[in-house]
Structures are given as structure tokens and as C-alpha cells.
Amino acid sequence: MAAFEPDPELVRQVSASTGLTAPVAGRLVADVLAFYSEPVEEFVRRRHGELRTYGAKNPQIFARIAEELSARPVSAPPLSERQLRRLVYG
User: Fold this and answer.
1) Do 22 and 8 touch, CB atoms closer than 8 A?
2) Is 66:76 a contact under the CB 8 Å cutoff?
3) pTM score, two decimals?
4) What is the rounded CA–CA span in Å between residue 59 and residue 61?
5) Sign of CA dihedral 66, 68, 73, 74
6) What are phi and psi of 74, to 5 degrees?
7) Cα gap 42→88, rounded to integer Å
């Protein structure tokens, strides 16, 4: 994961609202930012593989991935099942 320098104001807010020290709050914010920085293409491929591992079929997988993408803090543009398939299979 890439290193992130979190916004000091956000770190102060997290620290104040949770009681965490500033350094711990900074690491927490950096970890969350790094988690959500995964490019859409990588997220789709990773989630497809994870869901296939548990026996899900493509129609259910692509519906779930589309739903998950729309719920991310900085959501991806709506992607059709065809676009999702192309991200997975090329």
C-alpha cells in the first residue's frame, strides 16, 4: 500500500472523537485512506476472485460488486455487468 500523509484536521477530529493519541489516529486515518485507494479495476478483480472462491456465480457476483462500488466513500461511476466482466476477463 502507498504511504499517505493524512489531513491533520481529520487526524485531530478522529483523535478527539475516539480518545486515540494523535499518532495512533494518524495511522488509523492513513490505513483507511490506503484501503480505499485501491483502483476500481483491482477492486473488481479482487472481489470477483474472493466471491468465486465461495461458490458464487457471475450474475450474483457482478450485482454484488456493482452494489459495493456504489457504497464506497468515493464511489466509482456506475458500471454495467458487461463493463465489470471486461475488467475481470479483459
Assistant:
1) no
2) no
3) 0.67
4) 5
5) negative
6) -115, 90
7) 9
Domain boundaries, the chain: 1-37, 40-89
Place of cell 468515493: 74
Element (H, E) at 13: helix 8-18
pLDDT band at residue 2 under the 50/70/90 scheme: very low
* Model confidence pLDDT, tens digit, residues 16-72: 999 999 999 999 999 998 888 888 999 999 999 999 999 999 999 999 999 999 888
Q: How far apart are CA 72 and CA 34, in angstroms?
A: 13
Angle at 31 between CA 88 and CA 29, to 5 degrees: 130
